[in-house]
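Input sequence (406 aa), recorded before submission:
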Amino acid sequence: MTLTASWETGTIEYAAPLFDEPVVYLGSSTDTAFGSSREDLAAHLARRGPRPRAHGQAGVTLIDRLEDANLTGRGGAHVPSHLKWRAARSGAPGGIVVVNGAEGEPASAKDAALLQLRPHLVLDGAALAAEAIDAREVVVWLHASAHGTRSSIEAAIHERALLGDEIPMRVELAPDAYVSGESSSVIRALQGGLPLPQFSRDRARPWGDGPAILVHNAETHARVAQVGRGATYSMSSLITITEASAPLQVSRRIVVEVGPGTDLGSVLAGLRLPEPQAILLGGYSGTWVDWASARNLTLTPEALEAHSLSLGAGVVYLLPVDRDGAHEAAAIAHFLASQSAGQCGPCIFGLPELAESMRDWARSRRRRKRANRRLDAMSELLPGRGACRHPDGALRMALSAREVFA
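Predicted structure, token format:
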């Protein structure tokens, strides 16, 4: 079944899917490899034509179009793209545009799929961004273990260099850590520091006062390329449907594009997947939702926000009916604690405490009352106190598990 074909919703027509069919990856390796169906530069140009340019006034026009399209980042924070671009354009020239392909979220595969199968669409968006903000280069930020993605993107950069694309592009490798793909970690590393999260008061200008370091994930850059080509844009999203054979052991990831008005039950039915007992929406730092409530959720940011939910990193993690949700949540809490940056109190002390509380909560009803008291105390102490949102996400996952699996 094709879930990414053209569709119409009211007066909006969307006819430029990123993938023509759902993309399936089998296996639990962190080095996600989607096979040999990569679109090279010749095939990309034949399908979409040459990219437009965004120098000078054309850059201003493109930023206006991003605002009209209400394009937000797709890495989890969902900051409006036009705000970051305007801030970057108003600063000093000589900045950097970053394609953030370091998916710290183990359940996600959408950026890897784009960078391996549609690399030139992503690089088109990054080149447009570089021209619009007068940046000096494009950096593709990848985890060191992402060998399949690195091979694809380096081949794409070489193809563009042979064609004479004037925007310098290079790959930068990051440690294989959950937080090294967080946008403030990327900025800090490219400014000469360690790839660790740092606090930023201005989400539109997280790089500070110097030349801009404009970070978007691969999906956002692909959307920029679509908008830049003049395609009618609607609020579709790439999501990763994740199945796991055991806690933290991913067996299958399906990357699929969902259009406006698509509900989750229809997506799973179209993929012929069995109904789960619950889902973890947004990835390991997301929110647990029981299936009765999740089945009819419309997968758009506005619709989910009405239920105090978010797509986050674009992950729908399926919990089968025969699995213990409390133990699953406890395993995820321990993983998130192991991935802390170890530089703030909420990470150093709060995350291990959260993980132990979840283990006690899942282990027996006798320990649950004490664990609940500790979780209640952490819900008052952890939120908003770290350099990044890692502890906030872990707490959100834990508290929602307590509600769904009680």
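Checked by second reader. The first strand starts at residue 7 and ends at 9.
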